[in-house]
Amino acid sequence: MERILPDAVRTGIESMIETAYSFEPYFASTVVLVPGFVKDAVASLSESTGQDVETLEYLLGMLICYPLGLIMLALPYGKLKHIFSFILGAFLLQFTIGIQWIHQLISSLLAYAMFLILPAKMAKTAVPVFAMIYITAGHLHRQYINYLGWDLDFTGSQMVLTMKLYMLAYNLYDGDVLKKGKENRASKKCADVALSSLPGIIEYLGYTFCFASVLAGPAFEYKYYADACDGSRLYDKNGKPKGSIPSNVWPTLRPLLASLLCLGIFVIGNGQFPLLDPADPQNATPVLITGAMLAKPFYERYAYSWLALFFIRFKYYFAWMNAEGANNIWYAGFEGFDESGKPKGWQVSNNIDVIQFETAPNLKTLSAAWNKKTANWLAKYVYIRTNGSLFATYGMR
Description:
Elements: H1 7-21, H2 24-28, H3 36-49, H4 53-63, H5 65-74, H6 79-97, H7 102-117, H8 120-145, H9 155-179, H10 185-189, H11 201-208, H12 222-230, H13 249-272, H14 291-294, H15 298-328, H16 354-358, H17 363-369, H18 372-383, H19 390-396
Helix pairs in contact: 4-6, 5-15, 6-11, 7-8, 7-9, 7-11, 8-9, 13-15, 18-19
């Protein structure tokens, strides 16, 4: 990357990076939620299993969401759930990405200040622009310091946060529009998730840091999260169930078991058909462009590439299915009841349909089955807000 950029540009970028890094000693003191013995135990496990520390921390962080979900379910409805969601979300970020957790806090608080100061009509533009600039800067920074490399950093969770802030800005705007009785087709389409007022800071941070979705998503609207925390998804104002409350056991176990199967397929398949050199994935030449691979016939290289990419996808299937179950366990993934009191389903946190994606006959079906909540975000908060602009929608993607 340094060879491509002019010296003046490179010097300017390095100066900005150096300035940002100068705050590191101050932010390091904020990493207080992870006890030292936990880090030592993970390091010891890493040595005994041969897995790198980053991968183990992320895997353990995903799996621990299930016992945390049981605690969340047992807590009384109200503020305590929001506090728990925020603190444990912060813990997971500090456990997996360390000091970089501060990006989640800083961008969340800056966005909240914008929500407080700006009218909803302005915030619906200002907050999404701010969020997009922040995540773009993070990606560019990563490309500059580790071009074509891979590190577990804050950009993964920041992408989830970007969608949450983007949606929240429009949910507040829609609530303001509907409250004033104005005509707006997009606002009417999204009326079921519109908000009449800005959530309190505790509720807001509980949403932006929600432990069940902070690491791998999915990002869904604040109303679904809030309804699960205050019980209004299940009960009416008098505390009476809105219908026959369905069991959360199978909606939790199904994605959990499927995610573990996907994890096993990924570990075995990626071991047999790696894209990167397992001995040194950061620095060694990728397997597909080594001399030995390029010397093989085209059909062999194509078959290897197809299989390698097929098994890589199971890493994402694991993460999304695992997060789905972690949300379902405390009914955050439950859609609620229809007018007759029948359960609607459990699609709030469902982010992938593996069979449909792998057997998709066309691009439309393919894109609808992959990363569903990002597709939902694009449809409701980009496509219909730009009068059906495909350029804006696919530009975001």
